[in-house]
Design goal:
Blueprint (H helix, E strand, L loop, with lengths): L12 E6 L17 E2 L2 E2 H11 L3 E5 L2 H7 L15 H11 L7 E6 L9 H8 L5 E7 L4 E5 L2 E6 L5 E3 L3 E4 H10 L8 H6 L4 E5 L10 H11 L3 E15 L5 E2 L2 E2 L5 E2 L7 H13 L5 H4 L13 H13 L3 E10 L6 H15 L6 E6 L5 H4 L3 E13 L1
Parallel strand pairs: 1-4, 1-5, 6-11, 16-17
Antiparallel strand pairs: 2-3, 5-10, 6-9, 6-10, 7-8, 12-15, 12-18, 13-14, 16-18
Helix pairs in contact: 3-5, 8-10
Length: 386
């Protein structure tokens, strides 16, 4: 039985991120860990998860592609890998020796998805064990084959599929790597061979190692969040006044009067902002830009709409489409509609094909019919992660 010293209350954790493989089985010109998956390099997904957890990352592999793939993610300088995976891990462990952590994880860069709860489960297991790995039980019937025929059925009782990151007390793993012969298929086998216990924590079916092209396709589906459609509506009114420019949907429209208001009174943008804020359950434009704040006096409403679009992106969402209806007798909107749609699309950072601007009248009824003011209503559909 291994006698373990207590870990610190807040142990220092580092991860050897192994990215030295060539990925020959995958068959691509670029090593699989640097291929794009869900918009980012494969290696970056795991690195971002580790960095968010406050784990020091020690990459192993060719420096140039690693540095490019991890730009903006905190990590130590990459160290070259060895001729085998075991040699590459040992190189990463040695690079950490000058400022040794309490716990070291070893993770394959070709496993982009580290499931929620895995890191915490591994750390907890190390309080009573020198090593721990995530492992998923084998569910399929296993067959032994020879010459294209079944040669026998393998009893799957007690069989597990080992995954990474694997976690260890750092001093022990380093010592074992310095003395162990080559040939270990994973790091936990070094502890097994030396008689140390290794705990199993629950693995996850989505923690797959990208080996074949179809694995990359599956991982794209896993890492692409499910987006839910959400709809918001907006409505705004401003009075027409002398000596004011008429700004509608970001466009200066020639007219004898303009709209009065605290800002530039762009009734179309104000309604659209409320629609986007409503879809996000973020209140209305007054919540974000109070009319009592003189900072926004005569402000260009483009600033408000950019803020609404940025808020969608900050939540990991996207704007599916927006629709604005301007309600007035005059001026005629049709000659300006194309410019308005282009301007709104530019402010929101979306394709103009997702933007609609149209107009209607009230058949000379009400305040718009009497040309006392202009109204606008808007609808916005946004897609946000579930």
């Amino acid at each position: 039985m291994t006698i373990l010293a207590p870990l610190p209350a807040s142990p220092r954790i580092a991860c050897v991120l192994v990215a030295a493989g060539s990925g020959q089985r995958f068959g691509a010109d670029t090593p699989k860990q640097f291929l794009s998956c869900a918009g980012r390099p494969v290696i970056r997904h795991a690195a971002e998860t580790l960095a968010r957890a406050g784990i020091l990352i020690q990459p192993v592999g060719e420096a140039a592609p690693i540095t490019a793939a991890l730009a903006g993610v905190p990590h130590r300088p990459p160290v070259p890998g060895g001729a085998t995976r075991q040699a590459s891990v040992r190189a990463g462990l040695e690079a950490l020796a000058t400022d040794a952590p309490d716990i070291v994880l070893v993770h394959d860069a070709a496993r982009p998805f580290i499931p929620q709860g895995t890191l915490a489960a591994l750390t907890t297991a190390l309080t009573t064990n020198p090593g721990a790995i995530p492992a998923a039980p084998v569910a399929d019937t296993l067959k032994r084959g020879a010459n294209g025929l079944i040669a026998g059925t393998v009893d799957r009782t007690g069989l597990f599929r080992a995954q990474t990151p694997q976690a260890f007390r750092y001093p022990l793993l380093l010592a074992l790597h310095r003395t162990a012969p080559e040939g270990a298929t994973d790091d936990s086998s070094l502890l097994e061979a030396a008689g140390h216990g290794v705990a199993l924590v629950p693995g996850h079916e989505d923690n797959i190692k990208i080996t074949w092209p179809e694995d990359l396709t599956r991982m794209e589906r896993i890492l692409t969040p499910t987006l839910l459609p959400r709809v918001g509506t907006g409505y705004d009114v401003h009075i027409l006044a002398e000596n004011r420019r008429l700004i509608l949907c970001g466009i200066d429209v020639p007219h004898e009067r303009g709209l009065a208001g605290h800002s530039d009174a762009d009734v179309g943008i104000h309604a659209l902002c409320d629609a986007i804020y409503g879809a996000l359950a973020e209140g209305d434009i007054g919540r974000h830009f109070p009319p009592s704040d003189m900072t926004y006096k005569d402000m260009d409403s483009a600033i408000f709409l950019r803020h609404a679009g940025d808020l969608v992106r900050a939540k990991g969402g996207t704007i599916a489409n927006v629709d604005v209806t301007l309600i007035c007798e005059r001026p005629k909107i049709a000659p300006h509609a194309a410019a308005m749609m282009a301007r709104l699309a530019d402010l929101l950072g979306i394709d103009p094909g997702r933007v609609s601007v149209k107009a209607t009248t009230t058949e000379k009824l009400g305040f718009t019919g009497r040309m006392e003011g202009i109204a606008a209503q808007a609808v916005a559909m946004v897609l946000v992660p579930a």
